[in-house]
Write a structure and sequence with these properties.
By secondary structure, this protein is α/β, with parallel strands linked by helices. It contains nine helices and 13 strands. The strands form four sheets. The protein has a six-stranded mixed beta sheet. A three-stranded parallel beta sheet has the order 4-3-5, with helices on both faces. A two-stranded antiparallel ribbon has the order 1-2. The protein is globular, with a radius of gyration of 23 Å.
Amino acid sequence: MRPGLERIKPPSDGSFIEYIDGSYKVPDKPIIAYIEGDGIGPEVTSSARAVLDAAVEKVYGKARRIVWWELYAGYKAEKLFGSLLPEDTLTGMMMAKVTLKGPLETPIGTGHRSLNVTIRQRLDLYSNIRPVKYFRGVPAPSRYADKINLIIFRENTEDVYAGIEWQAGSREALKVIEFLHREFGIELTPDTGIGLKPISEWRTKRHARKALRYAIKHGRRVVTFMHKGNIMKYTEGAFVNWGYEVALNEFREYVVTEKEVNEQYGGKQPEGKILVNDRVADNMFQQIITRPWDYDVIVTP
């Protein structure tokens, strides 16, 4: 059994993926972890594993295959180990490097903290990277579905995902309400639930940095910071400002801002430069439907 594991043993067959000098080294029989999850989790996870196994066999024949390693979270983990998220599971995820995770249920309006949020924070999975792409032949209601080819970067550990909140009427909520009234004159009724929305410069900048590096490496054309800075000026407004700082201070040779394009290049994006701009979320949702070709990499809190 590997150091740090108490009750969950990795497969004797296969080898773990390694991360060396900035790149992953994948053996012929990589150990990849999976968590079935709750609800429909076991069904969809089983199907996903079957698809991945078939894809590997199609490409590599018998030369390579995935060695699956089950880890546990959610109700199955609680039944087996008395914990919704055993430490062995977090350790195993770090050892495996890659984990296929099914959906995990968190009862709404209860004292249980989201397991997804806990996993993100404990493993510092700070960027949620989601490709959004049209596949030919799939029915879609959008007129320009075939023009959609986006990569969305969403910060995973701050903002509402920080999970800093207190139930209405709780001792903690009442203390926060009293503090806000005493120190700032803010009036809140005692039956108010309280949640905080922290957005920091350091976490924002590493998130923006990851998105910009991705755009450069993969030849993307546009990086857009999506936000509600028009309303939340000191959180999401700061997010946008810090994003621009990273782009202009660390990637100046690769980027050009929308303002620069309009003022210096006659409204035409210069060849070989990544356009950096920002959009308020309300406008963004409309524009990715009506003119999706204008957007490429989207960075959000």
